[in-house]
Amino acid sequence: MKQFIGTITLIVLISIISCENPQIAMFEKFKGGEAVEIKDEIVVPFTLKRSHVIQVPVYLKDKNYRFILDTGGMTMANAELNDSLNFETMETPQQNVKMALTDEIKLGDACVKGMKLALTDFDDTFKLDMPGMIGTDYLRFFNVQIDYQNRQITLRNSYKMKRNNHDEHLMKFEMIPPYFPTVDLEINNEFHIPGMIDTGLHYAFVFPINWMENLPEEEKQNLIDVEGYFVRWPWTESPQNYLYLMPEIILGDIVLKDVPVLFGEIPDFLNNTTALIGKYFLENYLTTIDFPNRQIKFEERQKSNYSLRYSSGIHMAKKAGKLQITGVLYNPPASEANIHPTDELIAINGKKYDEISELEIYNLMMDKTIVKFYVTIIKDNKEKEILLTKQDLFE
Questions:
Q1: How open is the CA angle 148-152-154, to the nearest 5 degrees?
Q2: Fewer CB within a 10 Å sphere, N or C end of the chain?
Q3: If DSSP codes are grouped into helix, strand and coil, which group holds residue 391?
Q4: Cα–Cα–Cα angle for 99, 103, 105, nearest 5°?
């Protein structure tokens, strides 16, 4: 964790000391790197871990690894990975982050030469059994298309995109240093907040918890509190979450009405001034991000069945070798069944830890076409099976 916190500290330091954008220029100079020109588009198939974590093939010194791809993250790898790769390393000025001086990093056949790679305790922090991450410091050289429907990433040389039909939504984006793409979100025809495109987030929209101050007093009564948490980050202190039905969110010419959003503690390096836009929004579109031209295009696709609005009010996960209840909404039906995060979760639909996948758990929680499921818990030293039936939480 110390090394990972050092990486976050480095991001913040770069943002502060370097005031196109001076912060971005400083970041590019520090990270280095030069992309090899792409002759034809490069299609990289990906798989999903849990329901949202994109896994892609990455080559370091011609050795093949499976990394996470995250538009809300930085390129990094487990420190021990360099024991076998033997890249030359350097220490940051803070002396708590080690950087590998890579000869090249390849995502599929896309190649960036001479980029510094942060060496961290990545796997220990995120518990994903993965050796590293490809982030926006790598993707910044390319036009990057994310296709959840066909599960593939397409990389191209940068080009000026155009809107071709009514199903396409084209807009400019800004950068939050060091290199995170954000679009302007207009909220309730009154407020504006940057929304960061974050493929490492599962939920559609997460807002910083302090943004709730903008809600009228009568609307604050409509917040649904969470016992435990539905969303949190490893380095944040408080998992406090709230669920709310946002009347309107506009990004570019996309107008969304009655949007379930979560409020939570956003990581410190985003200064609690940025909302996050995750996979359960992005999967409704073919998303193309052209980093050099600061353009993003959303092309409408088949709508996802995932929804926070139709819910059993419970969040479950596979953690530390067992099934866990991480959060329960103070709203029926889970709260009516007297379920709490402190209860020991034994099985879901009769399946124990080794018998159920993370994707199946997310489908049961989030797919509105699945209307009921069973959980088996230990309460008061007794095993109890409970039927949970989803409902519209905002009726």
A1: 115
A2: C
A3: strand
A4: 85
> Which residues, in sequence order, are CB contacts of 181 under 8 Å at separation 6+?
71, 136, 173, 174, 175, 196, 197, 289, 291, 296
**CA dihedral (104, 105, 108, 110) positive or negative:** negative
* Tens of pLDDT, residues 318-370: 988 999 999 999 988 999 999 999 999 999 999 999 999 999 999 999 999 99
| Residue that is written with structure tokens 């996470």 in the block | 68
Backbone angles phi, psi at 4, to 5 degrees: -65, -45
As a whole number of angstroms, the distance between CA 97 and CA 116 comes to: 12
Q: Which residue has the tokens 């060091």?
A: 178
Mapped onto helix, strand or coil, the DSSP state of residue 378 is: strand
Burial (CB count within 10 angstroms: exposed 0-12, middle 13-18, buried 19+), residue 37: exposed
Q: Residue 217: which region, alpha, beta or left (left: phi > 0; alpha: psi -120 to 50)? A: alpha
Alpha helices in 192-258, H assignment, sequence order: 217-220
d(CA 314, CA 328): 5
Cβ 134 vs Cβ 115: under 8 Å = no
* Cα 247 from Cα 203, distance rounded (Å): 17
Region of residue 178 (left: phi > 0; alpha: psi -120 to 50; beta: else): alpha
pLDDT, one tens digit per residue, over 1-20 is 444 444 444 444 444 333 45
- Residue whose entry in the numeric block shows the structure tokens 């100079």: 29
**Coil, helix or strand for 168?**
strand
CA distance readout (Å), 104 to 124, 127, 168, 253: 25, 26, 35, 39
Q: Which amino acid is at 89?
A: T
Residues 336 and 236: beta-carbon distance below 8 Å: no
The SS3 call for residue 278 is coil
The reported pLDDT for the residue numbered 188 is 96
Q: CA-CA distance, 309 to 23, in Å (whole number)?
A: 39
The angle that helices 2-17 and 22-31 make with each other, rounded to 10 degrees, is 130
67, 146 Cβ separation under 8 angstroms: no
Dihedral angle computed from the Cα positions of residues 5, 9, 11 and 14, in that order, rounded to the nearest 10 degrees: -160
